Amino acid sequence: MFGWRSLWLQGFPTGLLLLAMVRWIPESPRFLMERGMDAELADMARRFGIVRRAPQAPPKDAGSAVAHHRELTIALVITALSWSFVNFGLLLWLPSDLQDRGFSAEIASGIIASSALVALPTIMVAAFLYSRWSSKRTLIGTVLLTLAGLAGALLPAPTLASHHCSSL
Question: How many CB atoms are located within 10 Å of the residue 95 CB?
């Protein structure tokens, strides 16, 4: 009824909800430890059952730690921007590309709506992996999965428009 663009408006309340809930989202233990917030760190350890690992050897100079954090931040920013461009680019490109291939606007909107429904369990799996595995491995896994999806999107048009795909 409203077209695929209305799906973009669904993300707005979610963003507002996250902003409203930020006070209940705890800081990471590393952040609390680096800032010397020992009371908050002890409270978090008690609430979530965090067991502290043996301390690692400190870096030889503070400059190398700052350089490491800078490199990590740059890598994460590049990854986030790349993912955003891929995500929004495909969602903006997909409906017009499908219509150029002869599919109806309803099919394009349906695919985007279906992808929005698939996003919820995907986010739950990513959150589970983040808590059980590690943030670095989860990030690498999502980047590899995104690359696999991009490779699929680059398949030739006849392959993408096969009988199995056209029944969507």
Answer: 19
Q: What is the DSSP string of 7-54?
A: HHHHHHHHHHHHHHHGGGSPPPHHHHHHTT-HHHHHHHHHHHT--PPP
Per-residue pLDDT tens over the stretch 120-162: 888 888 888 887 887 788 888 888 888 888 788 777 767 766 5
Six token digits for residue 8: 């973009």
For tokens 């219509």, name the residue.
Answer: 99
Residues ≥6 apart with Cβ < 8 Å to 112: 4, 7, 91, 94, 95
Gap between the Cα atoms of 8 and 15, Å rounded: 11
Neighbours of 108 (CB within 10 A): 20
Q: Give, in degrees to the nearest 5, the angle at Cα 35 between 30 and 36.
A: 100
Query: What percent of the chain stands above pLDDT 90?
Result: 2
Is pLDDT of 31 > 50? yes
What's the first-to-final CA gap in the chain, in angstroms? 19
CA dihedral 42, 48, 51, 57 (to 10 degrees): -70
> Which residue, chain included where needed, has tokens 């965090």?
50
Query: What is the C-alpha separation between 106 and 99, in angstroms, rounded?
Result: 10
Angle (nearest 5°) at CA 87 between 26 and 153: 140
